[in-house]
Amino acid sequence: MTTVVVRHCGPMTGLQDFGRFGWQRYGVATSGAMDGLALAAANILVDNPPGTAAIEFVLFGGEFVLEGGSGRVALAGAPAALSVDGQLERAMTSLTLRDGQTLTLGAAQAGVYMYLAVSGGFAVEPQLGSLSLHRRARIGGLAGRPLLAGDRLPLHYAHALGGEELGLDPLSLEPDAPIRVVLGPQDDYFTAAGLDTFLSTSYRVSAEADRMGYRLSGERIEHALGYNIVSDGIVAGSVQVPGTGEPIVMMADRQTTGGYPKIATVASADLRILAHRRPGATVRFQSVDIGEAQGLARASAEVLASLSSRAKPRGSGLPGNEELLALNLAGSAVDAFEPGS
Amino acid sequence: MSAPGQPHVLPCGDAAVTVEFGREIAAAVNALALDARLTGIPGVLEAGSTYRSLPVVYDPDALDYVARKTALIGRAGERGP
Q1: Which residue of chain B is at minimal alpha-carbon distance from A28?
Q2: Which value, to the nearest 10 degrees, does the dihedral of the CA atoms of residues A92, A94, A100, A106 take?
Q3: If we measure between CA atoms, which residue out of A158, A55, A79 comes closest to residue A323?
Q4: Nearest CA to A184 among B45, B68, B10?
Q5: Is-cis flag, bond preceding A185, omega within 30?
Q6: Tens digits of per-residue pLDDT, B54-77?
Q7: Which residue from A190, A178, A183 is spatially nearest to A285, judged by alpha carbons?
Q8: What is the pLDDT of residues A213-256, one digit of tens each?
Q9: Of residues A185, A257, A298, nearest to B10 (C-beta)
């Protein structure tokens, strides 16, 4: 059986798909990729359905050996150095690994989450319908825990399918964009001054930021009705404000209920943008109405659906035009036909 | 608190709402939350569970917020078997 063998990887590396749905009423968190668009892109490049489980890396990369056959892989998400047997390769492009080749992924150069998809996916048994790892609940992934050196991930496909390698343009991480929110469900638990603080000041991602939630630091948000409520549902992007007055944005591994009032909910389209903000990064919130947030959600669903038509063959192995432009090789060139331009 | 009346539907971003039967732990409120049948509405993906409110996750592509709210208020008022 063709197998990906883990030589080493960062401590939070684990399998993620789009998540585990239908169990929240029993207290089971959804989990799922922190950047679902990047997961989809990695999968599309290896001709998988977009939500196929891939290896999610958190800041740190790793090293893997393919054993027993060949396989096609692709990396998407935060930019990082990628090499096969020591030779540099590109992210956002499918790569075919031969039996015995070693893939090495460096740390994220910006942003946080990276996804390595394998054509055909991993032959690992789902739990409650999903391969997504929830580390605290020890469910999903390989044996309910992050990957460790020596782990063996069997593949569904014995060999890489033929055909040209595919490429996609990099996905934007929008490091400076405001994070859009819909106020509520408990915005009435805050004073007008508190709402103004939330929307007009800058917060920073604290060191306490992981797949469960991002605790932010900054100006205290003033409560009007105390900071405890009878526990109420938590959804992806719920912005809880505990007694400290500093907001916590609930992410993929969030618990299903919580007892702090929620001032707002992050627009689903902006969750992946927030996810890529590291500790110390700035977060500004911008209020939008539900209709606008739903328009953003539809637009991102369309981007995701368009990935397969945007993936283009990159058979030559040479950089594309956009990559050459990005290198600015021609920055000081002169146009012979338009002197002075 | 007084007897619970019509549930409130509160927005939770672009893809979820909370159907709130009350803001306290009370037998009458809890009975409504336990009895509500909020799944099976087209576009509703998942309903959670708390003492006094139900988070409902829906597909914003299927119906917009106003239509969702109307459907949920109607359904939340019905009693289960």
Answers
A1: B48
A2: 0
A3: A79
A4: B10
A5: yes
A6: 898 988 777 666 677 777 766 766
A7: A178
A8: 999 999 999 999 888 999 999 999 999 999 999 999 999 999 99
A9: A185
Average pLDDT over residues A136-164: 94
Of A55, A38, A46, whose CA–CA distance to A131 is shortest?
A55
CA–CA separation, A151 and A142 (whole Å): 8
* Among the listed residues A70, A64, A53, A46, the one whose alpha carbon sits nearest the alpha carbon of residue A16: A53
Q: Report the C-alpha gap between B57 and A48 in whole angstroms.
A: 26
Mutation site for A-interface testing, chosen from B8, B14, B61, B72 by largest number of A Cβ within 10 Å: B14
Residue B80 carries which DSSP code? -
Q: Are A325 and A319 in contact (CB under 8 A)?
A: no
Q: How far is residue A261's CA from residue A267's CA, in Å, rounded to a whole number?
A: 18
Disruptive mutation site among A232, A300, A302, A303 for chain B (greatest number of B CBs within 10 Å): A232
Predicted structure pTM score? 0.90
Q: Minimal Cα–Cα distance from B36 to chain A, Å?
A: 13
ipTM value for the complex = 0.83
Taking the C-alpha atoms of residue A310 and residue A231, their distance in angstroms, rounded to an integer, is 44
